[in-house]
Amino acid sequence: MNILQINASARREGANSTRVANSIVARLQAANPGASLTLRDLSGDPHPALDEAALGALFTPAEQRTPGQAARVERDDALIAEVQAADLLVLGVPMYNFGIPVQLKNWIDAIARNGVAFRYTETGPEGLLTGKKVYIALARGGRYRGTEADSQVPYLKTVLGFLGMTDLHFIYAEGLNMGPESAAQGFAQAEADLAAAIAVN
Ligand SMILES: Cc1cc2nc3c(=O)[nH]c(=O)nc-3n(C[C@H](O)[C@H](O)[C@H](O)COP(=O)(O)O)c2cc1C
Predict the structure, then answer these.
(1) Ligand 1 mutation pick, 140, 176, 189, max ligand atoms within 8 A of CB
(2) Residue 197: in which H helix or E strand, if any?
(3) Nearest C-alpha to atom 1 of ligand 1 is from which residue?
(4) How many whole angstroms separate alpha carbon 49 and alpha carbon 163?
(5) Cβ neighbours for 149, distance < 8 A, ≥ 6 positions apart
(6) 165 vs 112, 119, 139, CA distance in Å?
(7) What is the pLDDT of residues 115-155, one digit of tens each?
(8) Mutation test residue for ligand 1: of 96, 98, 176, 178, the one with most atoms within 8 Å of CB
(9) Sign (positive/negative) of CA torsion 95, 96, 98, 100?
(10) pLDDT by residue (tens digit) across 29-43?
(11) What is residue 89's DSSP assignment?
């Protein structure tokens, strides 16, 4: 059993999404003794954006790449290999300006490689990163669960589903910037969501 934890907060210290993600990992490790844990810290080790140079490297045949292009593609390869090896993924995801952090977008852009993470067939797209359970720790200053302002959950369902990851469990820590009582309630709700997610599996 391999667990892959992705921390997407811009903060290395004191991140609420990381706190909830850590709590999820602790529960999963307790339920799966001996499980290995790989930590991908996108704050401490930010992944580069998908820019013109990166696209150029990806679309250059491997044997024609410059050393710089090869190194850029290898950085994406490493993230893809981590996902391929994982049985369980735990994503720590803050809400920034109603969307996902750029750190997580860069990770998604890195792993969503045509022919590796998905492919198009005559009947449509097929996700290739299958057989994985994904827990997503959502940390928010306000409360947006189930509202139209929550673009994160529909987006993550769409893009992770496109890549073959359809067994998704969203854990909500909301209202974290609305005073200490609200924050305590938000973390308690996350624990309740987690207990419910683990109980049904
Ligand atoms: C730049 C920035 C933008 C934010 N945008 C939102 C937002 O759109 N909606 C919201 O509810 N909270 C927003 N917040 C609050 C964060 O979601 C909240 O502080 C959360 O706990 C951050 O997670 P983290 O501690 O893991 O980084 C924002 C915080 C920052 C720093």
Answers:
(1) 140
(2) helix 180-199
(3) 96
(4) 19
(5) 98
(6) 12, 14, 21
(7) 999 999 999 999 999 999 999 999 999 999 999 999 999 99
(8) 96
(9) negative
(10) 999 999 999 999 999
(11) E
